[in-house]
Amino acid sequence: MSKKASTSRIDKLLSSMGYGSRAEMARMARAGGIMLDGADLTDVTRRIPVTPDLPARMEIDGEPLDPVPGLVMMLNKPLGMTCSHKEDGALVYDVLPERWRRRDPAISTIGRLDKQTSGLLLLTDDGDLLHRVISPRRHVPKVYRAQLARPLAGTEGELFASSQFMLEGEDKPLAPAHLEVKSPTEALLTVTEGRYHQVRRMFAAVGNHVEALHRERLGALALPDDLEPGQWTLLSQDQIASIFTGATDRVQ
User: Fold this and answer.
1) Shortest CA distance to 157 belongs to which of 141, 139, 180?
2) Which of 66, 114, 126, 225 is catalytic?
3) Which are the contacts of 233, defined by CB distance < 8 A and separation ≥ 6?
4) Residue 11 — φ and ψ, nearest 5°?
5) Cβ contacts of 199 within 8 Å, gap of 6 or more
6) Tens digit of each residue's pLDDT (9 = 90 or more) over 30-48
7) Is 57 helix (H, G, I), strand (E, B) or coil?
8) To bridge 109 with a disulfide, which of 83, 113, 129, 152 should be the other Cys (CB 3.0-4.6 Å)?
């Protein structure tokens, strides 16, 4: 059952979406800069339902309204970008429209990919969804393509799947992971946890080194071939639901 749409004052909604202060929204409305259902909207104190179809019904300065709160997007994260709001250097948020970086609640990454890992990264302003995906109880499958420095020995798959495999410095075995060998130095690894640098540490523990790492899939949600590095796309409700395909809840 879908959640009932919340309602909001128009000036408060637009301000939270980064368009400006409430006073600025009132001035914009008086100048004819806001339209709803094809008519000028002058009373920004009016409350309206915040529904997903609002961007198709409302215009701001002649442009469709940005996606309303509750958005989820998939980014093909390039190498060299950091999943942070504050660190120096290139950040994943740099690829978003400047106004989107002023939204409240803020858009955040769902989990992280390190600076030298590329591929499928989700971003959202939906805190409930974020915690559902990254919850250690949920065990969402994550598929990574690893390019390795040395040929695989042939014993890694059994070891990774054993439920007995331990990472250095930890006292709890990893959940079973599935290894699919693509070539002597390339493999797909499916993990259901999100431990620190987990994939790189797994291969290091068997005497190998990950030279390139790319996340291709979360659950049944795959990175499209035509989504270039640095590009992003908004997800539908069906795509969001597909993230949890294959996930299992486990008591930790």
Assistant:
1) 180
2) 114
3) 73, 74, 224, 227
4) -65, -40
5) 144, 146, 189, 191, 210, 213
6) 999 999 999 999 999 999 9
7) helix
8) 83
